[in-house]
């Protein structure tokens, strides 16, 4: 060994985001002039700089090299002791490598970020937002989650209530918001609330959201019921106050007829008229009116329509036009390969399917795509998977695969699931060439798959931008 080394100090401590220096002293104990190259090795080597990187020493002389350690303030700089080494390679004797070792202790720091997905939820009886908690520090974090709002209008169900998050990882907390009082009539009301991520010894991290509570019945329906009730009461009062006087004149006319036929006291039987007109047996007014014949109608059930009622006719359910419906119609009209697709747009729902390069979705309206419905013909089927802005690949390595003329769905229309940021596709035969429109980036460069191979289309995975529109050809 023709080299002597010394690290001063052998152990050092540094805070993430700052730097510290260690001096490496080197002495040429050989008998020839030599040049030495210095190379840091170990887990912390990406954050080490050496100055100078080469050193030329005469026999018996000593030189100094400075090592500067500058770990970033991220979760990559793991807290605790981290051994390191410096590989010293002589130019004259490259096989005689010397590797002095030292220890660098990186101090711990904690930093938590939280985000509500979505920040605004709507409902009559409950809302279900998700809280994403990211640990961007370099040590494990244990935290609890609690909710509060001004006026105590909401109750909170939080699952799980406590989380442990490793450095560089995230945890998702499911939250159910329930209003303490139901709005039976009236318009919607906004209920601001706050979810707090609490850790021991530090101030809580608060995230604000809004729960829009809808009325159970609209206000116009309450007004209609009030007017209907007032009219019903008025009708009943008028009916009670108005009693029609119905009387029969049959008795009066009978009494008048009897008085005309009664004999006077001085009259004899011979003087009585023999042909006095007889009183009518009953007055026409007292005789019951003859029943009028009733129209039997088309049913022919005499006497008041005694026929059995016909059962109500059921209305046919509306037919949903999917991508498979459209591609089958197109394939029937034109041979060859075709692709049809439609988009489920946030706050708007399903659009009508389009085919072979037409545009699906929206552009410039901040309405991301949540689900893509795709169907093909002439390619022996299509496979794919959807990547979400927050959750990433929601189904992991489970790929959706469908044959020709069958609907394939990528993504989720659930309110708690974030929109799509992109998707992958693969066909058995032929190629698929999507063109995607990403929020704040516009239309991306069109790309094509190769038969039997996967390819990703959409926002760059590290940017996590919302997918807004697509055009696909085969």
Automatic annotation (TrEMBL):
Q: Where is the composition biased (Gly residues)?
A: 298-308
- TM region positions: 220-242
Keywords of the record, alphabetical order, are: Hydrolase, Membrane, Transmembrane, Transmembrane helix
Q: Keyword Hydrolase on this protein? A: yes
Q: Which Pfam families match?
A: ChW
Q: Where is the composition biased (Low complexity)?
A: 262-289
InterPro entries membership: ChW
Give the region (Disordered) as residue ranges: 253-321
A GO molecular function term, named singly, is: hydrolase activity
Tell me which SMART domains the record gives: ChW
Protein name (database record): Hydrolase
């Amino acid at each position: 060994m023709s080299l002597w080394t010394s690290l001063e100090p052998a152990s050092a401590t540094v805070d993430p985001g700052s730097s510290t220096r260690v001096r490496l002293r080197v002495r040429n104990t050989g008998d020839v002039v030599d040049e030495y190259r210095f190379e840091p090795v170990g887990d912390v080597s990406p954050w080490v700089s050496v100055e100078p990187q080469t050193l030329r020493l005469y026999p018996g002389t000593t030189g100094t090299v400075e090592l500067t350690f500058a770990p970033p303030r991220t979760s990559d700089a793991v807290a605790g002791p981290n051994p390191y080494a410096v590989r010293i390679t002589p130019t004259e004797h490259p096989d005689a490598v010397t590797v002095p070792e030292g220890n660098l202790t990186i101090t711990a720091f904690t930093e938590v970020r939280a985000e509500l997905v979505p920040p605004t939820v709507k409902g009559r009886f409950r809302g279900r937002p998700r809280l994403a908690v990211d640990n961007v520090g370099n040590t494990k974090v244990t935290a609890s989650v609690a909710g509060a709002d001004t006026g105590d209008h909401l109750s909170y169900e939080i699952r799980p209530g406590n989380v442990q998050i490793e450095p560089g990882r995230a945890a998702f907390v499911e939250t159910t918001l329930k209003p303490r009082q139901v709005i039976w009539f009236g318009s919607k009301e906004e209920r601001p609330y706050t979810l707090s991520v609490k850790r021991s010894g530090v101030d809580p991290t608060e995230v604000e959201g809004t729960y829009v509570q809808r009325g159970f019945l609209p206000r116009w329906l309450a007004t209609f019921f009030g007017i209907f009730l007032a009219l019903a009461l008025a009708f009943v009062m008028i009916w009670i106050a108005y009693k029609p006087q119905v009387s029969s004149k049959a008795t009066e006319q009978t009494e008048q007829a009897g008085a005309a036929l009664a004999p006077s006291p001085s009259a004899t039987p011979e003087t009585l008229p023999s042909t006095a007109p007889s009183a009518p047996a009953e007055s026409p007014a007292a005789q019951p009116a003859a029943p009028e014949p009733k129209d039997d109608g088309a049913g022919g059930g005499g006497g008041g329509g005694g026929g059995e009622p016909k059962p109500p006719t059921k209305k046919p359910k509306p037919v949903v036009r999917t991508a498979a419906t459209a591609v089958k119609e197109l394939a029937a009209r034109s041979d060859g390969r075709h692709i049809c697709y439609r988009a489920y747009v946030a706050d708007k729902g399903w659009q009508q399917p389009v085919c072979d390069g037409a545009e699906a979705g929206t552009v410039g309206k901040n309405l991301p795509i949540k689900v893509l419905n795709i169907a093909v013909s002439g390619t022996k089927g299509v496979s794919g998977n959807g990547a979400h802005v927050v959750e990433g690949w929601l189904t992991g390595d489970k790929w959706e695969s469908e044959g020709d003329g069958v609907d394939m769905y990528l993504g989720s229309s659930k309110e708690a699931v974030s929109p799509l940021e992109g998707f992958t596709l693969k066909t058995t035969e032929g190629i698929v060439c999507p063109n995607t429109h990403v929020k704040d980036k516009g239309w991306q460069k069109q790309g094509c798959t190769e038969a039997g191979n996967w390819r990703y289309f959409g926002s760059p995975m590290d940017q996590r931008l919302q997918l807004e529109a697509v055009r696909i050809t085969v």
